[in-house]
Each structure stands twice: as C-alpha cells, then as structure tokens.
Amino acid sequence: MTGDGERQFPAGERQLFLDGDDLARMDGLRRVFHQPRKRGAVIRREPALGGNPEIRSAPVWDPQARVWKLWTICITPEELHGIAGLSGYHESRDGLHWYQPILREAEYLGTRENNLVYIPMGDGCTAEILGAVYDQGDPDPSRRYKALSFTMAPELAILFATSPDGIHWTRVDTPPIASGDEPNFSFDEKEHLFIATVKVPGPFGRSHALTVSEDFENWSEPEMVFHADEEDQEQARRIIADRLADPTLQQPVFNHPEEHAVDVYNFAISRYESRYIGFASMFYHTGRAWNDRNHDGFHHVQMACSRDMRNWRRLGERAPFIGPSPLGSGAYDTMQILGPSFPVVRGDQLWFYYSGIRHRWQPPKAGPERAAICLAALRRDGFVSLDAGAEEGTVTTVPFHWEGERLYLNAEAGNGEIRCELIGSEGQPLEGYERGNSIPLAADGARQPAVWREREFMPADSESPVQLQIWIRDASLYSYWFE
Asked: Are residues 280 and 168 in the same domain?
C-alpha cells in the first residue's frame, strides 16, 4: 500500500527519466535526449518478389525455434492491396542477417518458390500481416502468434489473426475496427494487454486512436489519444523551410508553400519498463501531388511517453528521435521514415527496426531500390539521461516502496563519479546508507550495483517509504532499479 505521492517500484522494473513524475527535486543537472545510432539497411528489395519491403512491426523472438521472426509488407503491387495482401516472412539468428525461407504458401509472379505468407479472408481474398507479437503465455499453442491486419473491403478497417508458427494464419472471428491505412500493434506482456492504434481524422489531419484488449477478441472502443497541435504547425513551417534550403537532403517533387503543414502518419505505442512510449511518424506535407490524390513530403520520428496511454508528453522538445540521412550516404531513410513499433532489447542495447524510403513521389531518374528495413541502436534505457559536468548535481526521488535487495544504476561515469544516499520518512539519511558511506561508481556500465561500505544490500522492508538521493559529477545517469 502506498500513500499519496508515493511510488511502488517492483523488482526488476527500471525507472527512467523520460519525465519528472518520480522526482521530488533536481539541482545542477541537465536532462539530455538521445538519438539512436543508425546501422543501415538489414532487409532490402527482393527483385524476384517485385517489391520494396516496409514494416509496421518489429522482430519477435521464438524461444522454441530460437530465431527472430519478422513480417514485411508492401510486397504486392498497389492494385492488389485490399484483395490480395501478401507479406514477406523473414528469420534471423542474430537480428542483423536475415534470410527468406522458401515456404511455398502463396503463388506470386507465377511461382510458389517464395517466402510469402498471408491471412485467408475468404472469397479468394488475402490480407497481409501489418504487425505481429508472440504471446508465450497463451495456453493454446495454435494462438501463440497474434497479428493485426488491414482491409479495404467492404470498408477501411483492421482485423486480427492467430498462428502457431507465424506462417500459417487464421482470422479471428471478431468485428473489424474502423481505421485508416496506418494501424500499429504491440503487446504489454506485464499487463497481458494487446495494444493497437488506428488512424482517424483529427484537428490537423491524420490522428490516432487507441484500442486495447485483454483476450485478443474483445476490443475497447477506439479513443483518440494523439494528434498534431498548433505548436506542431508552427514548427512545421520552419522545419520545411530548413529542409528545402538544405542541398544535402532529398527534396520533395512538389512544393506549394500555402499547403505546408504536419500531421501524424503513424503512431506506435508499447510498454517499456515503467512507462508507455510512443513513436510518432510526423509527416511534413510540402504540397499536393499532380493527381490531387495525396501530398508529397517527408517524415521525422518523434518520441513521447505516458503512464496511461492517453496523456502524452513529447520528449526532446519535439526533436527527431530518428531523422533523415543525407544524400550520397547510400541510405534508404532519406525521405520517408516509418518509425519502430517497439524497441527490441538486445543485451545492453535497444534495437529499433523501421522503414526507410528514399522518396514519396518518384523524382526523375530514380532507381528501382526505393525502400528497405533499417536498424538503429541505442544504449538500453538510453532515451534520456541526467547529466552533470565538473560541478556536482543532485536528483532526489519521490518517496517510494521497493521490492528487491539491491539497487542498480545504468550510468556512464568513467570520467567522474556517482554516489547514492537513502533518506527516511523524517528526512534523515538512513544509518549506513549515507552519502559518505557510498562507494563511488566510476565506470561506464548498463548494470552497476550501488554499494555502501558494509551495506551491500538494501535495508529491510519497512512500512515507511524512503527516498533516493543521487549525486552526479562528470557523469550521465540513465536509470535505476531494484532486484
């Protein structure tokens, strides 16, 4: 039981600094927003399949087969979407090198020698896999894989499917949910909650609503939770002008200044440790295309965080989490960037798989390789750090109860030091856990135990909460947790 303003920190759940909700005070520290390091394309165009791959998903680990599995979309020509959706199925043992098993499940371009999979829709129609997760806790092995898909007939909507292996799919008999063409999907394993976002109209164009399910059959009524606002529009005019003036970046084909604006092309929600995080693919329109069908423009991926998936806080003052690569680099993410669905934890790193697209409307002399699946990597918990220079800074948490015996820090302190102190309910340092007894952390490590002289473990559980105060000098702190 916790009182007002108190927190409960479960064992193993990392506490990050995405917002200040868990902090009582911060002095002399800077909150620094970090971007991942791009590692380039990992899945490229497959000429035999006639298309450029994209994803609105992320790899999932199959513990039985001991491989990563990933489903790509946009394999089939545009005229087949909605009636013959097909997805490419890929496997990898390291997440970097992907191969395409010959499955012989679907005929395409006159052959079944391919890696294509689909969701049967009846009447000869098929649907692609837009997002998939692995639900290890489902007692029915035939339902361990769960997917979200999209259909255009008889109306724009999302639907759901299950599979024993990620290859053979069965549609779930649940009513479709109305959506535009950019849904997203993830699984909160801790709460056993399936999370989907659907595209809906909003105050500034494309916006996104949330629907959730505990059993993958009964879904909540979609509720709008994320859209562009006035501040986005103000920033958009500057961002577009800067883009058009930069010769190192890919330029749009169409530019009509009176149409410059921004909306949210895709919005992915997922659970990460103690928060929900969101990746918003912000679409900056530069002008309507010649056929008046859609806008030309480019994307930045922004990041946001939330406790309840309904109230969102933008991170990094709306700076790009993933931005465009320059021309001449050989990269694919020069124009359109469709953000990651959720981060993949790989040891002490987070891996982000996303779609990189070289142009939205084809410029003259464009090559056939238009899109690829790209990878970026970030230090685990590395979204936001609290940084101090030569002058020491401090951060103090709100009162909390904890589960576990040891305190761990994810910190970069190779050129400085970090010390910790526990404060009791009366505001006094706990005996043995004072700052003077804290052995300084002076290394770079994603998992460093906090140790006090003669006090390696946390104090015995008490009904009274404690606060954690951390002193930082010439170092960066990313997270803390208890085990």
From this structure: yes
Q: 205 and 69 share a domain?
A: yes
Identify whether residues 375 and 389 lie together within a single domain.
no
Q: What is the C-alpha to C-alpha distance for residues 260 and 389, in angstroms, rounded to an integer?
A: 41
Shared-domain flag, residues 356 and 419: no
Please give the backbone phi and psi of residue 38, each rounded to the nearest 5 degrees, phi first: -75, 140
User: Which pair of structure tokens corresponds to residue 54?
Assistant: 């994209």
Look-up of token digits 């465009």 = 324
CA distance 59 to 67: 10
Listed in sequence order, the DSSP H helices in 270-383 are none
Measured between alpha carbons, how far is 387 from 98 in angstroms, rounded to an integer? 38
In this predicted model, what pLDDT tens digit does every residue of 419-442 receive, in sequence order?
999 999 889 999 999 999 999 999
Whether 244 and 162 have beta carbons less than 8 Å apart is answered as no
The answer to whether position 468 is within a domain reads yes
Question: Structural domain of residue 322, as residue ranges?
Answer: 37-381
Residues 220 and 119 in one domain: yes
E strands present in 236-370:
261-272, 275-288, 295-306, 313-314, 336-338, 344-346, 349-357
Domain match, 298 and 404 both: no
Domain presence at residue 2: no
- Distance between CA atoms of residues 184 and 19, nearest Å: 24
Alpha-carbon distance of 397 to 458, in angstroms, equals 16
Whether the pLDDT of residue 132 is over 50: the answer is yes
Residues 287-308: what's their mean pLDDT? 92
**DSSP 8-state assignment for residue 233:** H
CA distance 343 to 323: 17
Higher per-residue confidence, 46 vs 223: 223
Q: What is the pTM of this model?
A: 0.95
Q: DSSP secondary-structure letter at 46?
A: B
> In total, how many domains does the chain have?
2
Helix (H, G, I), strand (E, B), or coil: what is residue 440? coil
Distances (CA, A) of 245 to 27, 236, 300, 337, 355: 40, 14, 17, 20, 25
